[in-house]
Amino acid sequence: MSVTFSQAYLTALQHYEEEMLQRLALLVNIDSGTGQVEGVTRIMGYLRSWLEALGCSVTLHDGGQYGPHLVARLRGSRPGEGRRFLLVGHVDTVYAPGSALACPFRRDGELAFGPGVIDMKSGVIMALYSLRALLESHFADFGEICLVFNGDEEMGSPSSAPLLRELARQADIGLVLEPTRSPEIITEARKGADRYLLEISGRAAHSGAEPHRGRSAVIELAHKIVAIDHLHTLLPGVTFNVTRLGSSELLNVVPEMARCWISVRAYTQEGLEAAAEALEQIAACSSVPGTRAYLTRTRGRVPYQATPQVRALVAVARLEAQALGLELVAEAKGGVSDANLLMQTGLPTLDSLGPVGGKMHVLREEFLRVPSLVLRGALLAGLIRQLAFQAPNPLGGEETPARS
Can you tell which superkingdom this protein's organism belongs to (predicted)? Predict the structure, then answer.
């Protein structure tokens, strides 16, 4: 019979639950929308003190307009040969200043509410207490556990991405603390995402006196938007979302300019490239004579795919979940996270290991299922210990040196 560890950590985490909630309330009641540097800095200060109390060495990295990013390192008893774990979370939210005052942390039975309570301040708190449970059980059979908490994930991690990539190259296993909608669900794959700016140039004319002399950029853009929507049929599994439409605003002028943004997502890089080719073809053609289109692509996060190494991690997670009475399901998701960045470096990564909740990005409705702090925290602690315990290499094959 396989040895499991998560059940043993369940009891320890139950003892921490009230303190976990108190600290969670403290963080939730601090505004930390992306770019709200004061709030992000305050939160990082609390996290630093709590992590240092656990014996971690903590450094803050300047994130410019996004505030500091925190890196905490804990060395185990096997430096240079034991497993090196990288745990990733974020403290920024999508909410405007004043949201914490308008909707402070509150608990209603088994639910807790507040801005960022599930996305993802509860995951950050859970990680700290999973680490505490591991340490208090005298577990040290690892090379290093590194935790990184950034303040810009909701904007795509523009300032923390280089730091995340650097840390990923120093690790063996990535564990991302994004939330989940059910205790049985984790994430083994995510779509990649690109964005495009589509600009149309036409010809202005008086819309009443000489409309025939005009070439409407808006009408041409409308034709192209319909064509883009039809790509969903041609490229199954690839999604196109058109948004942020704009044009010249005078009502008595045939518009000579129009633009839109397009978000494209796909589970494979091949899907993103097929989308790029299809959009170029749409841009090259015109329905309104005399108009021209200009398409600008900005590459985003690459797809995070379920590689054999990732599926090996899923198998270990299932073993630990069964000890907690959970039949774990690993899903592919359309949303992106910092797991995409870790996988881009070649680091085998599991995502959605955080607590259970929902209504993310909905200020008055975002919620955490409180019991999941303990349950999923025990799963995380058991998973880390199980992966370290499965010597010499739980991922199969030869030992892999640090990636460069």
Answer: Bacteria
User: Where exactly does CATH 3.30.70.360 map onto the chain?
Assistant: 192-300
**What is the average pLDDT across 110-134?**
98
The DSSP secondary-structure symbol of 403 reads P
As to burial, measured by CB atoms within 10 angstroms (0-12 exposed, 13-18 middle, 19+ buried), residue 375 is: buried
Return the active site residues. Answer: 92, 153
CATH 3.30.70.360 holds for 192-300: yes
SS3 state of residue 251: coil
CB 234 within 8 Å of CB 266: no
Q: How far is C-alpha 61 from the chain's CA centre? A: 19
pLDDT band at 355 (very low <50, low <70, confident <90, very high): very high
314, 188 contact by CB (below 8 A): yes
Residue 271 makes CB contacts below 8 A (sequence gap 6+) with 235, 237, 238, 303
Question: Residue 306, Cβ neighbours under 10 Å: how many?
Answer: 18
Judged against a pLDDT cut of 60, whether residue 136 lies above it is answered with yes
Helix axes 308-323, 6-28, angle to 10 degrees: 100
Query: 67: burial class by Cβ within 10 Å (0-12, 13-18, 19+)?
Result: buried
Looking at CATH, the fold of the domain delimited by 6-190+303-389 is given as Aminopeptidase (3.40.630)
| Token pair 């935790």 in the structure block, residue | 147
Question: How many other C-beta atoms can be found within 10 angstroms of the C-beta atom of residue 65?
Answer: 12
Give how far Cα 186 sits from Cα of 4, 183, 324, 400, Å: 18, 8, 15, 25
Of all residues in the chain, the percent with pLDDT exceeding 70 is 96
Query: How many separate helices (H) and strands (E) can be counted in the chain?
Result: 10, 16
